[in-house]
Design goal:
- The protein contains 5 helices and 6 strands.
- The protein has a single domain, classed as Conserved hypothetical protein from pyrococcus furiosus pfu- 392566-001, ParB domain (Alpha-Beta Complex), CATH 3.90.1530.
- 33% of the residues are buried.
- It is α/β, with parallel strands linked by helices.
- It is globular, with a radius of gyration of 14 Å.
- It comes from Rhodococcus kronopolitis.
């Protein structure tokens, strides 16, 4: 499997997608603050396996249409957009939230669970 290649910054449409997801979990003012924090956050790198573990999300199979599409992009050497995540909280047992990029995390994991993924990380308070 070829190396996963990443864009230097998330796509602009990733932020509204993250806001749509986060609106299911938090009130509008908190969502607005979190998205603003994501936009301002620096890129950090986290391993695919650690993102899945911290989020408590299952690894989607390679035949999932979105994972399959991302695997095809990886095979063609296309750049993927970095992932947007909201930090979890160990003291309250709140999992990390993958606000945008869950399928990209799964596709990357299928190539190599130790792959470093560029991530923008924001606190849940924004």
């Amino acid at each position: 499997m070829p190396e996963v290649m990443w864009k230097p910054e998330p796509d602009k449409h990733d932020y509204p997608a993250a806001a749509d997801y986060l609106a299911l979990l938090a009130p509008p003012q908190q969502v607005k603050a979190i998205v603003a924090a994501l936009e301002a956050a620096p890129i950090v790198h986290k391993k695919a396996k650690d993102l899945l573990r911290a989020s408590r999300l299952p690894l989607l199979p390679v035949d999932n249409p979105h994972v399959s599409s991302d695997l095809a992009k990886i095979a063609k050497g296309k750049l993927l957009s970095p992932i947007l995540v909201v930090q979890g909280d160990l003291s309250t047992d709140v999992a990390l939230q993958v606000a945008d990029g869950y399928h990209r995390v799964c596709a990357t994991y299928h190539t190599d669970e130790n792959t470093d993924i560029p991530v923008k990380l924001a606190p849940a308070t924004g």
